[in-house]
Amino acid sequence: MNPFSPQQPAWISASTADAGLRTQAFIRRVYGWMFGGLLLTALASVWVISSPAMQSIVLGNPIVTIGLILTE
User: Kindly report the CA angle at 24 between 15 and 18, in degrees rounded to 5?
Assistant: First the structure.
């Protein structure tokens, strides 16, 4: 084996590439779940703002308001 011949560096391998793909897939799933959660929160807030009945339930009862804050 010639020490001066061009070889693939030891730190680049198929497992390294697979780890990068797994990391990208994991981050994509995390951002997908986060997007879903934020979308659900936005839809719920629009529902509360546009419905007088929901406004009276959420804003009229301090226990519900505190419960929603703690649940969040």
Answer: 10
